[in-house]
């Protein structure tokens, strides 16, 4: 399964990505985290890994992305077709992975100087990486995105099996959740909301204010251990009950959609 995490800036996308990654490995799954945030650089710290090299290096070395995309457009090749080959968790070049305790981190790339314009190139690369990635039954991919819905507008959601919108108690988060909910029929994958950084009042307020509140599957609450890890850049604590509910819910729906029993270990 490929899970995309999106939401407003600072809502907790990277935190929830890391919590999901840790919980999945605790349940015996193999996990690759794909970092598609081209600006923020801290994901590796909360996963406890080193920063991986940019995947752009791999793809540019292999073949020009732009050329492949242009050919695909000219020849009417359907979107989502792997244009640069296929790979598995075992054949991703090890030099582009950073690992810690069963979680492997891959990063599309980071903007490091003022000449690196053209964000579409990074999103195209992430889409190609996901399209070419063939999963075994116990493989899980978690995609951390940067703020907003640009990834969805650029059709990255179509390369995923589910989208999780992280909603913190703010007007912007409510609006963004409404926007993604409105896109659900276009991306054809389940869209879930997880509430984050709430207290009892803001949780109740969000449940009331959010459109399509049936999408809410968990509430992480304001958590001092998470906040502390975020401050210090330490790996996140394991065993968060909200993350277990998220996994149970999305695995159950995914198994029902694929017509097989959920894979629990
Ligand atoms: N449940 C929580 N309780 C307390 N603090 C939290 C919680 N979730 C996230 N945080 C803190 O909020 C801050 C932002 O979290 P995070 O970096 O995960 O957000 P983000 O959505 O990935 O941000 P960006 O849009 O900048 O990538 C961090 O300092 C993190 O530790
Ligand atoms: Mg982030």
From TrEMBL:
The keyword Cell membrane does not apply. Coiled coil: none annotated. Gene3D superfamilies: P-loop containing nucleotide triphosphate hydrolases. GO terms for molecular function: ATP binding; ATP hydrolysis activity. InterPro entries: CobQ/CobB/MinD/ParA_Nub-bd_dom (IPR002586), CooC (IPR014433), P-loop_NTPase (IPR027417), ParA/MinD_ATPase (IPR050625). One of its GO terms (cellular component) is cytosol. Keywords: Cell cycle, Cell division. The keyword Cell division applies. GO terms for biological process: cell division; negative regulation of cell division. Residues 7-152 form the CobQ/CobB/MinD/ParA nucleotide binding domain. Signal peptide: none annotated. This is Cell division ATPase MinD. The lineage of its organism: Archaea, Methanobacteriati, Methanobacteriota, Stenosarchaea group, Methanomicrobia.
